[in-house]
Amino acid sequence: MAIATMTTPLPISLFPFLLLIPTICFTICHANSNLLCIQSEKEALLKFKNHLIDPSNRLLSWVEGGDCCEWTGVVCHNSTGHVNQLHLAAPLSVPDSLAAEAEWEAYYNSVLGGKINPSLLELKHLSSLDLSKNNFSSIHIPKFFGLLESLTYLNLSRAQFQGAIPHNLGNLSKLQYLDLGGNDALRSKSLQWVSGLSSLQYLDFSYLDLSEATDSVQVTFKLPSLLALHLPGCVLEDDPSFNSINSSKSLVVLDLSRNRFSSVPKWIFSLHGLVSIDLSHNFLEGPIPDYFGNISFLEVLDLSFNFLNSSIPNSLYSLNRLQFLSLRDTQLQGTISTAIGNLSSVTHLHLSESQLNGQIPLSIGELSSLKLFDVSRNQLNGQIPLSIGQLSSLEEFDVSENQLNGQIPLSIGGLSSLKLFDVSENQLNGQLPLSVGELSSLKLFDVSKNQLNGQIPLSIGQLSSLEV
Fold first, then answer.
1. pLDDT above 90 as % of the chain
2. Contact 302, 30 (CB under 8 A)
3. 206-220 burial: b if 16+ Cβ within 10 Å, else e
4. Which terminus of the chain has a smaller tally of CB atoms within 10 A, N or C?
5. Is residue 87 classed as helix, strand or coil in its secondary structure?
6. 26 pLDDT exceeds 90?
């Protein structure tokens, strides 16, 4: 019943990089330059506009008599007047498949479509181009994009492009950020062209079918500056040649979720600088490798929704930088070690929907940064440890559908940040502690299907945030 989403967070150590990339030249560029824009560049932008479909008139300001540096989505250099950036991402994201018709209508009215005119080649100083979340479903990625030599940032994600990825994108030697993710009609039989992107730091090919691009991992790992690699849903699977790749010394974020791996690729353990690993939603089998404990900088580890069928290795408990750990729905067995108290930086622990047994260790109270603790749908027994009252940052506590007994500890009154408390479907007894009334932030409180008795404390009625 936990209300937190299972989106794997980005590591905190990467935030400065992610803040930098989309605004690569905002330190020297701005939209309100004192200089008028270059006439030839204005004409190029107007040609570009004339071939677009713009149902919501997002580009209404793009008119012949205006200063193009003042136009929506256009950023000029504040000393030369050259167009440096085009930020034309759709304002709304693609709705969920179950979204209401009105939500879809609003989305389609907000997106740009049509054709992309090669007049953009006149923008010789263009360093950033963002066309993400639009609807270019009738066209391929233009080959002339590979001639935009000044580009450092290119975001074409979720823009519904189709067909083969043009290999001459590999000519963009200055490119630092490339996102083609979410265009599931794109295809590529080889990623050899990526090897030309020598400055690339961020690469996202999410949900592109790379099953025919057998060189995908080998090529990307040779990029000398790559920091983040996102390849979820790319139909990748076990390949013996992966084990002989040159390990990347720069990589800090690796997302291989929603693929077809049946075992953890061994080459991952040669990437000692990794900060975030996401291998969720694969077909991983067998025990969790001890080698994860050697990746000492790890802050995020997501192995959820696999078939690991093992206990939690002691090596994981040595990762004192770890902030997010998800082993949800992995058929975990065995107990939770008292060594869990060593995870001094952890904020999110997802250990639900497995076969864990034994007791929740007292050492859980040593996790002073913990915000979410979810061990629901296991076979845990014993009592809720008194030490949970020490978790002053705890926002969600879910131990539902276990075999816990004893009373709800009085110490829960110290959880001033608690929003969700779910102990339903256990064997708890006794009365609700009066300290429940001190949980001023509480929104969801579920103690159903236990053996509790006595009266409900009147103080619960004073919890203004509680959802009934």
1. 78
2. no
3. bbbbbeebebbbbbb
4. C
5. strand
6. no
Half-sphere exposure of 20 (CA within 13 A, CB side): 10
Q: How many CA atoms lie within 13 A of 104 on its CB side?
A: 6
The angle formed by the CA atoms of residues 87, 90 and 94, to the nearest 5 degrees, is 145
**Are 409 and 389 within 8 A, CB to CB?**
yes
Share above pLDDT 70 across residues of the chain, in percent, rounded to a whole number: 91
Would you place residue 142 in the very low, low, confident or very high pLDDT band (cuts 50, 70, 90)? very high
Model confidence, pTM: 0.91
Assigned superfamily of 358-468: Ribonuclease Inhibitor (3.80.10.10)
Write the DSSP string, 170-228: GG-TT--EEE-TT-TEEE-S--GGGGG-TT--EEE-TT-B-TT-TTHHHHHTT-TT--E
Which DSSP category does 302 fall into? E
The alpha carbon torsion through 213, 219, 221, 226 (nearest 10 deg) reads -100
Q: Is the pLDDT of residue 29 over 80?
A: no
